[in-house]
């Protein structure tokens, strides 16, 4: 067989950001990574809201003891905590839109994708991952059971929560 010196190289170049099915199974994030990301995200919001709670409480005490100037200063600090938390929420939404990650997921090197490897859209994440479980979680008596079941399903062999099944998503190591 004759070799053509002018033929295109035979190397396979994989420059696609879409992952293959077998690769996805091997790249699934561990339960610990997912838990760590949720805890880091929650810690970020707690840190942002800390001035809100501290100053809100001290403002309440100032108003209760008749110190109106301290109460108005406390309101400024409380508003600052709310603005910081809102800023973090917006930043997380931008990250989710761009890369399928929140701050906590980015710190731990994991991200949300569709089960076929395509990126998950922000609308899918909000309306299929968060919204159904959030609505069901507000129903008296049923809500706590739904929230508990959502979390416990991750201990199955698929390592997915109920919200992952609803949204057809998985969390992988980036």
* Strand coverage percent: 5-15%
Mean of residue pLDDT?
A: 86
Number of helices: 7
What is the end-to-end distance?
Answer: 43 Å
Could you estimate the helical fraction of the residues in percent?
55-70%
Class derived from helix and strand content = mainly alpha
Identify the overall geometry: elongated
Topology as H/E string? HHHHEHHHE
Main beta sheet, described? Answer: 2 strands, antiparallel
Oligomerization: single chain
Give the strand tally. Answer: 2
Rg measurement, Å:
23 Å
Unreliable sequence segments: none
Q: What topology, given as strand order, has the largest sheet?
A: 1-2
Walk me through what this model shows.
It is a single chain. By secondary structure, this protein is mostly helical. The chain is built from seven helices and two strands, in the order H-H-H-H-E-H-H-H-E. It has a two-stranded antiparallel sheet with strand order 1-2. Helix 5 (122-137) packs across helix 6 (142-152).
């Amino acid at each position: 067989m004759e070799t053509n010196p002018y033929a295109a190289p035979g190397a396979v170049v994989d420059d696609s950001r879409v992952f293959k099915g077998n690769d996805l199974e091997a790249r699934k994030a561990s339960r610990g990574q997912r838990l760590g990301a949720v805890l880091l995200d929650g810690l970020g919001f707690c840190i942002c809201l800390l001035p809100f709670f501290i100053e809100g409480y001290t403002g309440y005490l100032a108003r209760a003891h008749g110190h109106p100037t301290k109460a108005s200063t406390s309101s400024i600090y409380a508003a600052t905590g709310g603005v910081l938390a809102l800023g973090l929420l917006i930043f997380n939404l931008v990250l989710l839109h761009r890369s399928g990650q929140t701050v906590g997921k980015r710190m731990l090197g994991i991200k949300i994708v569709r089960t076929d490897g395509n990126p998950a859209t922000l609308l899918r994440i909000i309306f299929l991952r968060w919204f159904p479980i959030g609505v069901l979680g507000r129903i008296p008596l049923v809500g706590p059971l739904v929230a508990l079941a959502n979390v416990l399903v991750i201990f199955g062999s698929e390592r997915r929560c109920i919200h992952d099944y609803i949204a057809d998503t998985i969390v992988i190591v980036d």
